[in-house]
């Protein structure tokens, strides 16, 4: 009887540790939520068949240095991490798109459950003529960010909003948001589908 109780308690301890370790991983980092990023649309269940990202929308982390370094072309939306590969799938151009207008002022926002020392936030848009049925590549992006917010090593709060004016565009596009971490070799990536 004692062996059964000990085995049961041991099993509960292992299960509890697993839950705590998994929960800890899911409470770190951050994601872009305005315009809604692909990862938050997946986590909210608005887009299906997204894989593991539904549990970790804040974890799209990859090498920093974009656009000269960082994730490979076609893997930018997933930060180059194969676990989040469904974010790179253009889904035939059918990702839900936020309606925007050229010249519009917009608040670009991030939710950051655990802040990091930050270099900057940068925002890129695909060029006019972008084909939304294709993955995002450097060739499809205007590689000069339309908005940059320097942080010089400071930590952002749990929610940050960056007022920006949108450049001239028409049709469907992808907005790529990059949060560059100051004291690691990584950055966080978020792709938002938009329509002008």
Automatic annotation (TrEMBL):
GO terms for molecular function: monooxygenase activity. Pfam families: LPMO_10. The keyword Transport does not apply. Residues 1-22 form the signal peptide. Coiled coil: none annotated. Residues 29-194 form the Chitin-binding type-4 domain. This is Lytic polysaccharide monooxygenase. The lineage of its organism: Bacteria, Bacillati, Actinomycetota, Actinomycetes, Kitasatosporales. Gene3D superfamilies: chitin-binding protein cbp21 (2.70.50.50). SUPFAM superfamilies: E set domains. Transmembrane segments: none annotated.
């Amino acid at each position: 009887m004692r062996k059964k109780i000990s085995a049961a308690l041991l099993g509960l301890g292992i299960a509890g540790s697993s839950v705590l370790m998994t929960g800890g991983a899911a409470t770190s980092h951050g994601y872009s939520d305005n315009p809604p990023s692909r990862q938050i649309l997946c986590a909210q269940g608005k887009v299906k068949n997204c894989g593991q990202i539904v549990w970790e929308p804040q974890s799209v982390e990859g090498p920093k240095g974009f656009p000269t370094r960082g994730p490979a072309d076609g893997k930018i939306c997933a930060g180059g991490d194969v676990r989040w590969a469904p974010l790179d799938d253009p889904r035939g151009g059918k990702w839900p798109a936020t309606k925007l207008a050229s010249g519009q002022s917009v608040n670009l926002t991030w939710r950051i459950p655990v802040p990091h020392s930050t270099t900057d936030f940068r925002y890129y848009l695909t060029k006019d003529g972008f084909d939304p049925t294709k993955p995002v590549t450097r060739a499809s992006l205007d590689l000069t960010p339309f908005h940059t917010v320097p942080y010089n090593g400071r930590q952002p709060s749990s929610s940050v909003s960056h007022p920006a004016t949108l450049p001239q565009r028409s049709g469907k596009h992808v907005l790529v948001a990059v949060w560059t971490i100051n004291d690691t070799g990584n950055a966080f990536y978020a792709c938002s589908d938009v329509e002008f």
